Amino acid sequence: MALQFQHKPGLVIYLTAGDPSLEATLAIALAAIDAGADVIELGVPFSDPLADGPVIQRASERALAKGTSLKDVLEVARKIRAARPAAGLVIFSYYNPILRYGLANFADDSAAAGADGVLVTDMIVEEAAPYLKEMERVNLAPVFLAAPTSPDERLQAIATHSKGFIYAISRTGITGKQQNLTADAAELVNRLRRWSKLPVAVGFGISNAGHVAQVAEFADAVVVGSAIVELVEHSAPDEAPGSVARFIKGLHLEQSVLAR
Amino acid sequence: MASVIVPTAPSESRPGRFGIYGGRYVPETLMAALVELEQEYERAKADAAFQAELADLLHNFAGRPTPLYFAKRLSEELGGAKIYLKREDLLHTGAHKINNALGQALLAKRMGKKRVIAETGAGQHGVATATVCALLGLECVVYMGEVDMVRQELNVMRMRLLGAEVRGVTSGSKTLKDAISEAMRDWVTNVRTTYYLLGSALGAHPYPTMVRDFHRCISLEMKEQLMEKEGRLPNVIIACVGGGSNAIGAFYEFIPNREVRLIGVEAGGRGTGLGEHAARFSGGVPGVLQGTFSYVLQDENGQIAQTHSVSAGLDYASIGPEHAALHDSGRADYTSQDDAAALDAVVKLARTEGILPALESAHAVAEALKVAPTMQPHDILVVNLSGRGDKDMGILAQELKLQGV
To answer: How far are the Cα atoms of A207, A214, B32, B184 from residue A203, in angstroms, in the given order?
Structure first.
């Protein structure tokens, strides 16, 4: 059931693995899936998350303080896969932890853990040849980011090399909440459609039902990251799964035709 | 359809690669800006008017060419090679950093960007950037780790006096690495209006190449001055290496002259354990940090290590990718000098030659103190004295116990 969206719009939930603990991340992921998340992006904490805003920076610091490693994150992935065979599962990381783990080892172990895809924040298509080869070898979907600043020729290359879905960044900037969605997002998704039939998920700054409804007008899925991570930050560990489930229900996703 | 962008050739043969090192590892949002910068830089390089404006400013504003000074007393005292100092410390703003800041600021102006951001460690690049922004009427924001703001307070005040906004960075180790991350976050947010004036031969392509080119004047002048004074090339060139901009500038023209030994000096800090130093070639492994593939001090999980050096400008977990290639090919040797040796070198140079080097440059001086006595009197050793030590008076006063009545 690799990377299919059962809701309209589909829902991708980002979690920083190991924040507040690996056990909590597993429980939160399962609760999120049961509440309606189609895909879990399991974030590998990194010491220097330069594409992330303060919320995910803090979560990464907490997870690293607990000693969370890429190996630990893949173990959480394996447990999520065992418990929820139908859910979509993407490993989300900066490139250096993957390089240190070994690109081929990472590909093997991610596939063995049951991941469907991988998203590397600081990987662009021009540098991706060795990475794409490994993803192909183990049949993992490489998910690339597309930005409002990407010209058409870049979007075309991104579309060519992406599998599963394409992650469209809603605005220039780092991860984190925002009040209003800019017109950037719709324009980017429309441009991407010219090059790809893959589902397009819009992320960065999506934090409430209003945003979700807006994005549903033009995209296939939404990614909610910092809003969830912040909710986890402010919840007691045993209450976080319930809080996240309530938050997701409050986004008012509809079952898609496919799921009915 | 086959991609129009992804090349089929191995990555090593592409521009922006130095052997296997370099490249571009950045969020997609920045890619269009990096491509635009690369293209504009290529056009500027070929534009005689741009080159003439830069040459004029380097001469009349910054003070190039800098002297190649024969350190007679130091040479005699050490009893080995003839030691020359390339006096980048005499440049306006006090370090080699102004070479690159002028070049890139002219590029920013050419690209119609009104807002310039920069990161700084020791504050020398921040001061240089604030200076050229004042000169060209550009808005300037400098990111600086809070640890560095304390130890290089004088430079913080200089930047503010020049009209720049200095933003303290409180994340991570609160030093250069964190300042770069914060500058990149600003750039990714304001990429349409903002020019990122990166201060070392680091980061994603085209920065390592462009920054090196702007500092190439150091080795060009050195070669000319040596031919004039000595009629021959030097035996050894020594430069300190943080990100590696002064070193690559001092080495570059001599790379084809294989008889010239090139020595890069990293910060040995206060010990050999991970976190105690910034010696990337003895403690690091290849990896990706802040846009480029190079040697990186990191733990077994690929998390970037803390670093330490008495000199803020050398206190960084990675190193410019061209140095990584020079290291692997064996063309340049890299070694380290610790905090104590750098402090001793400051005192030595101050008292034998009346020159107060920056703590960064003092690492190169420390290496020269070790190497020169092993050489012959007719041998020539050049130290690239990348900056002056006035900015370090606070640290020096404390470390060398200069205060009191």
So the answer is: 10, 12, 19, 19
